[in-house]
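Lab meeting, action items carried over

1. Structure of the two-component assembly. Owner: GW. Status: complete.
Input record:
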Amino acid sequence: MNSTVNKYDFYDDEIVKKFVIATVCWGLIAFLVGLVVALQLADWRFNFGLPWITFGRLRPLHTNAAIFAFAGNAIFAGIYHSSQRLLKARLSSDLLSNLHFWGWQLIIVSAALTLPFGYTTSKEYAELEWPIDIAITIVWVIFAVNFFLTIKNRKEQHIYVAIWFYIATIITVAVLHIVNSIAIPVTFLKSYPVYAGVQDALVQWWYGHNAVAFVLTTPFLGLMYYYIPKAVNRPVYSYRLSIIHFWSLVFIYIWAGPHHLLHTSLPNWAQSLGMVFSLMLWAPSWGGMINGLLTLRGAWDKIRTDPVVKFLIAAVTFYGMATFEGPLLSIKSVNSLAHYTDWIIGHVHAGALGWNGFLTFGMLYYLVPKLWKTNLYSVKLATTHFWIGLLGIILYIMAMWASGITQGLMWQAMDDSGNLLYPDFVETVIRLVPLYYVRFVGGLLFLLGFLIQIFNLTATVLQANKEKVKDPVAKGSRIPFKDVISESSHRSLEGLPAVFSTLVVIAVLVASAFSLIPALFTPTKMSAKSIIRPYSPLELVGRDVYIREGCYLCHSQQIRTMSSEVLRYGPASTMEESIFDHPFQWGSKRTGPDLARIGKKYPDLWHYRHMMDPREVTPKSLMPAYAWLAKDKISFDLIPKKLRIMQQLGVPYSEYEIDNSIETAQMQAATIAKELHEHGAPSGLEKTEMVALIAYLQSLGQMSIKPLEVK
Amino acid sequence: MSIKKEDQLLDHEYDGIKEYDNLLPSWWLATFYGAIVFSFLYMGYYHFAGGPSLSDELQQDLAEIYTKRKSLEVKDNGPTEEALAAILADKSRVDQGKVIYVGKCASCHGNLGEGLIGPNLTDNYWLHGDASLMSILLVVADGVAEKGMPPWKGMMKKDEVQSVVVYVKSLKGTNPSNPKAPQGEEVKN
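Predicted assembly:
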């Protein structure tokens, strides 16, 4: 090769290699952290008493690492590798590619440096605080520009179905991220979202559900459409099916968010819409699975011989399973059993380990030898990885099914006299512990398989020829505009990516606008003011402690419209009750009991002792101890600013209340501390976060000005 | 290799990937249309034709439960002092009560009943009632919510409440070390 060659004559595979390496490194971390949190649920002592690795702080790190670090880097590797070849063009700019790569890694590192220290918005999968959110936006725009400019430079008139899915991903993630992250900063690493209560719930789960759709589904479908036909060397089963399932998926997915909010205080009709759109989503999802699996017709024997094909096909099968289970879980009656239980965790992991994990593993086994121009070091080891990993996933899912269904049934079980059969919540927790160990073993096997892969891939790279051979860009050409528009309708769209992308934008925006409409039918803060009081300054501080410690990852604050819930926790939650909650704290999983009406259930000293060590009051509890709260001091001077921002967001604090908020907080803290001390707690608690948290807990369910109608 | 006749290759090709133009599987279309039709029927029934809302269903469920509880209350006149005394004489029930006590009561009344958040249960001073078995049953079952003593009747089965009550009774006069100061009135029972 001489030095005068134009670099644009070759694909940029260096950037793909970087993303591949990042995928492997972050994957290892994500799985390890997952294993630790799994172990902590089996035995709380595995947090070693260190605040920054307690369950509530570590779980967001696990989910974010798995979704944005492992899957994210895998997506970027696959998109950059396949798009260049599908478009017959080198990536538009090395600078943008590298900014994208390093920017993204920096974001992940900052996530790892903030989440364990309690800097979190508490919005699931969007926990990162506002400066990082801004960085994500910038890096995403860099990615988008790089990608769309590459499309512009393409030497292939039409865009292949994989590219459609990449386009949908880039556009929708941008919309989701920006809308869900709008917040007002309090300090450099603390903010309050502009939405509250049921509105925040609606926006958050529109985001949360579609993060699954557009980070963990559409890009992976795109990868599937490239790597499966490449690996088996067979034509894609049906082009028509691609068209139908692509558009229906993009349009219908957006609506299904409220299936995370069934039986809550969200208006009934909005819940029903979430449910029926989820049912309608089943077929479009399976369209993708069919196209993936049936592409293998005539080459089924490759499943036996080629580990890449094994992984890819198993991944698609798990995709089919998870997308069947999803609509099932969205049916209100099934959901009433499964919501808040480990069944949902199992469902997520069928997708995350089976679909995203295995697809990525298959892609890596395909990519690494191709990128480093050698053969896979050992097919046998890859096959071993496959079976160990598969066994791990099956153990994981089975354990969570068993655990989730046990929980759901025990929560609802009634005896003949119309009383709860298991009124003591902790009984329903103890029962699950053996299953948590099974889950741990499943995760361990999955990780073990991955370690084998890391070894195999490293050996592959090491045996490769050090001389760099670059792949030349394939020759191609564009066709004149008038020929493009005279083609059949969808075909001409494929020839006009700008128009195609615009249509995707319209579909996503229209569906989003409609699916967020229920937010307009919720009570206003003005109207709620006469029913419910806002938090006292000290309670607000306590609430921020609750958020920081990630209590919402084990506790819900939403009593559902089900008789077993009402008998256990009290009247079903109303929309007004969370109206001043920026952000809402309804939660998504109950490892501990619901806390929406915990206020005044126990004396302050009970909470003090429970927070110091839950085993003191509930012998078999698996809740972590939070003893450091009795030492950490409250930042009283931040309180006026917090109240001021809440006021700007519409929470009815008066000027007088804001001006005197520090004194009010100190007085309330002193009262609680004095009483605690009288009952035997140590003195001097009035400056600590412990009293703030207790004040907050005691306010839950006690905020109504008018007494609730108890039926 | 069994490639069916309907497989018709399109003239698309991307990096060597070709596409067939197979028809959509009919069972797939059926599920898609089926779901759409079902959705209209579902929304129509529940939100336009007056189908019950979730809170209607909840009220109905609760009403059934409360009626059932009422009808049982009528049949069951509740235990008497004598009946409870018989349970107190049954060692296995007292032991059962102890297990419950350690799990649910000790956190507030101390492991030995010496008192902690809640009052000492071993002395002769009582806040509620005269320390008869029936009066203990009353306070344990109904609680004193505003003072931090939970009502246990919804949280345990009836016979469990009775067992823990007789266990509390058995604590009387056990003189644990470091007792909480007396609260309430002195009683004779």
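2. GW to write a short summary for the group page. Key points so far: Residues 81-186 of chain B form a domain with the Cytochrome Bc1 Complex; Chain D, domain 2 fold (CATH 1.10.760.10). The two ends of chain B are 92 Å apart (CA to CA).
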